[in-house]
Specification:
Helices cover 25% and strands 25% of the residues. It has 164 residues and is of the alpha+beta class. It has one domain. The strands form 2 sheets. A 5-stranded mixed beta sheet has the order 3-2-1-6-7.
Length: 164
């Protein structure tokens, strides 16, 4: 399995902040040629890398989801596979590098590290202690498994804008 390096202020893998749409499309084509599988949608890597552009047409935001991409890549920030470590542990680890915004309106779901322009997101909050709660024990096995996935983040993103 290959490694996709997450570098705040720089890029994720070969997709870099400041790239033009044309440069982005060239990178997507290169990923497609190298990693495309028969089971993949032809636009697979367009779904894997979500980008936003500024008014000059340069990339200012890059996001990757955990689901599809983890079958191809280890997604690594500072030596840590961000989709293979529990959310609470990942936040604590990155917080030692750069503090997260403790006043973020979606705290628990979103952790934004403004000094480095890195965000972590999950659609629901679940903690290890929740496994002992009655509401969790009353769920069927399939629903318990669904809840357990929220122990981990679902996406990571970087932005060109940082705040100190």
């Amino acid at each position: 399995m290959d490694t996709l390096v997450i570098e705040p202020g720089i890029g994720i893998g070969d997709i870099k902040l400041g790239m033009s749409k044309y440069e982005f499309e060239e990178c997507i084509e290169a990923y497609t040629v190298k990693y495309q599988k028969k089971a993949h949608d032809p636009d697979y890597f367009n779904y894997v890398f979500r980008v936003e552009y500024d008014t000059l047409g340069k990339i200012i935001f890059i996001e990757i989801p955990s689901g599809m991409i983890t079958t191809e890549f280890n997604c690594v920030f500072s030596g840590i596979n961000v989709f293979n470590i529990k959310a609470e542990e990942l936040v604590e680890t990155i917080d030692r590098i750069a503090e997260y915004d403790r006043d973020h309106p979606e705290l628990g779901y979103t952790y934004f590290f403004p000094e480095i322009g890195l965000s972590l997101w999950r659609s629901s909050v679940f903690k290890d202690g929740d496994k002992e709660e009655e509401w969790f024990k009353e769920l069927c096995v399939e629903n318990q498994e669904d809840e357990l996935r929220f122990l981990y983040f679902e996406s990571v993103s970087i932005t060109a804008e940082t705040r100190v």
